[in-house]
Structure formats: C-alpha cells, structure tokens
Amino acid sequence: MSKKVIGVTFILFSSLLSNAQDQKVNKNKPASIALKASILNFKLTPLTEGLTVFTPALGVQFFKGVAPKLDALVNLDFSSLKYPYYVSSKQPKATTNSIYAAIDARVHIKLATDDKAMVPYAILGLGLAKDATNFTGYAPMGLGVQFKAKQGSFFHLFATHNAEASKLTKMHQNYGVSYSFPLKLKEKKAIALPTAPVQADQDDDGVSNEIDDCPERSGLLKYKGCPVPDEDGDGINDENDQCPNAEGAVKYRGCPVPDTDKDGIPDDQDKCPTLAGLAGYNGCAIPDTDKDGINDELDQCPTIAGVAGNNGCEDLQPKLDIIAAALKFEIGQVNIAPKSLTGLDALVQIMLQYPTTSLIISGHTDNTGTKKINDRLSLSRAKKVQVYLLKKGLAENRISLIGMADTQPVASNATKEGRAQNRRADLTIKY
C-alpha cells in the first residue's frame, strides 16, 4: 500500500509541475511564510487506548507561487504525543509523550487566482515524520480555502487526510488554520560595469575574433570560441558525456552499452544480462528443458528427464529386458508366442516416444543342432521379431539384427529347462 501511495503522489507531482510551465507566469504568489495551528487526529482502533488520538500541533509553512493557479510549499508541524502504531507493526506501545515532527512538500491546486477574495484549492503532497523512535512516511491529500487579507497576506482554512506511505505510518487527519505574509527581501543594486570596447565577432558567439580559435563556428569562451568538443565522436559532447574517450550511446550518457555478465553480448540485447550465456540463446545459458542437468544441445531427449550415460534419455533397458523375457521359442522354431505380442506392442510405443534411439535384436539358440543350423536359426528368430515391429510402424533403419547361435547361454544347456531359457531373443536399446 505505501509504495502505491508514494508512486501515485510522485506521478501527480511531476504532472502538475510540468503543466505549470505551460501556464502564463505572472502575478504568482511571492515567497511567503505562514504561521500554522492545527489538530492531528489519528485513526482510532480498539488497541490504541491510552495513546494519542486527537492532539494540537504548531507549525510553519513556506509558500512560493509557480503559476497563477498553482502554489508550491514546504509544511512543517511539531507536536507532543504518544504515536499510536498499529499492533501489526510490532512496535512497543508508547508510555510517555515525545516530540513529533513532520515535514512535507505539497502543492495547492487553486480554482482561481490570488486576486480573488476567496479561493478554494486542493492539496497534494509527500512527507516524512519522526517520533521518539521511528521515521514514518505519509502523503497529505485534502482541501482548503484561501481568504485574501492586506498587503499580500492570506488566511487559510484546510483539512488533509495523511495517507500511509510507509509500513509504520498510522493514517491520520490534520485540520488547521494558517496566516501567510510575503517575505520582502532587499533588492540588490546592480553594479555598473564599464562599457567594453566593441570587437569584431564573426560568428556572433560572444567571443571576439582575436581570441576565437573557431571564428566561423559559434562556440564558447571556455573552449576559445569553439563548440563543446566530442572527443570520441559519438555525437554526445564531452560536457554531457560520462565516457568522453569511449564511443557510447545517449541512453547510457555517452558510455558504451554495458555487458554486466561479461559474455560479449551487450545488456540491451541480452535477455539474461546478469548470467553469462550465448548469442544463439539471446545472451542466456543453454537451456535444460527437462531439468535433468544435461543441457538441450547435448540431450537427445530434451523434454524427458534422463541420465548422462544415456545422453539425457531415460534408462529404458530395464523395460526392454522385461519385454524380452517373454520372447522364448520352441525347439527349431521361429514363431513368436501370442503372449509375447503385447510386450512387442509396448516396445513400439517406447521406440516412437524416443525417436533418436535405435534397437539391437539378438537371436539365440540352445546347443542342440549344428553351428550352421544354429547360426541361421538364431538370426531368423531376430528377424521374426523385426518383421512384427515393422508391421507396427517402427522404421527399419532403427533396427539392427544379430544371430548369436548358442554362444551366449543364460542357463545350463544340460537340462530341458535351461535349454528352454536359452532359446530366446534379447532386446538392447542404443541412445
């Protein structure tokens, strides 16, 4: 809340002062000082008993007209009170009165000029207060009426709502009166200077030709009649250039565009200006979409978390081992048992989900039969699995076949059960 109050007040201040430049500046209120008496009325809550809620204050105000219907002023208040902090601020409850001082800058937006007998106006400002222990920020907003008195003096009646502009501020109102009178400063008599002799000035820059190093170009006396130099040639003269010896940009007051993270990419083109990165990623580091610690340029599965040993892909081999466990064959046969087809269907889906992987199918036999027969039989078993996968949509260039015959038994060929385990097809994933 406090940041919003400060921001809105600052924007309104800026707008009012800039608009004031467009008004006809005449008959503005001269510099004046006012004596002020007021009442501070803090918001009453059930937890502020015994603390100050309604108390008198004295103060002074300094006025200066900046436009016929706009006055700027500094307001100062003094009081003795127990500041009633909100309980949520966790400040200790005051037990004795302390001096409370508040100062703010404000403007009076008048509905008429000062020559009118009565002028209503709106009040807008921003201020800072101090009690015994803390500083608090507030934003006065309110209404007032100015009554014309004699010899440039004015009588004011006003009321402001002092909004909370910091965490410790307690919302309160200020009702008061003040009487202002102009400050009459003695006018200084102009010192008569001797008339300077007329000298030739070809470029009309106020620097005579005798001492003008650039008589045909308008310049300044401090530069011997020449224009303000631009040492680095960036179009920003050296008086306004904070880096006069390095070519820069107006946005950076004549200095080069900074490169905060030192990655060679200037901040105005760097989407990650505080983190070193690469031009290909607009100054940001190589992304890791799946957050597996392997950047996308090295990750063959950039959208699915995996491990470095599989080039960023999930370790799929355990799943393939389960599918392969069902790929068993009868003696001398290559046909796939129907119960194994479900697993092969799942294998196709896995391979489609990971399009950068490839598959090795190795066929095996038991030790019955000759080597020539077993070589051909084992390769045929691998081929049979391949044919099924191709029918299900898997690309042929992703599958490699190996016939291992009986060279890699997983069980003893001395028993019927062991030989049944050895008549198989193994599946190996490659990343």
Question: What can you tell me about this protein's structure?
Answer:
Helices cover 16% and strands 27% of the residues. The protein has helices spanning 2-20, 317-324, 341-353, 371-391, 416-422; strands at 32-42, 54-67, 70-81, 98-110, 118-130, 135-148, 154-164, 172-182, 358-363, 399-403, 425-430. A hairpin with a 5-residue loop joins strand 6 and strand 7.
Specify the overall morphology: elongated
Tell me the radius of gyration: 44 Å
CATH topology of the largest domain: Porin
Strand content: 25-35%
What keywords describe this structure?
elongated, 16% helix, alpha+beta, 60s Ribosomal Protein L30, Chain: A, 431 residues, Porin, eight-stranded antiparallel beta barrel, three-stranded mixed beta sheet
Secondary-structure blueprint of this entry?
Blueprint: H1 2-20, E1 32-42, E2 54-67, E3 70-81, E4 98-110, E5 118-130, E6 135-148, E7 154-164, E8 172-182, H2 317-324, H3 341-353, E9 358-363, H4 371-391, E10 399-403, H5 416-422, E11 425-430
Parallel strand pairs: 9-10
Antiparallel strand pairs: 1-2, 1-8, 2-3, 3-4, 4-5, 5-6, 6-7, 7-8, 9-11
Helix pairs in contact: 2-3
Provide a brief overview of the structure:
With 431 residues, the chain is of the alpha+beta class. The chain has helices at residues 2-20, 317-324, 341-353, 371-391, 416-422; strands spanning 32-42, 54-67, 70-81, 98-110, 118-130, 135-148, 154-164, 172-182, 358-363, 399-403, 425-430. A hairpin with a 5-residue loop joins strand 6 (135-148) and strand 7 (154-164).
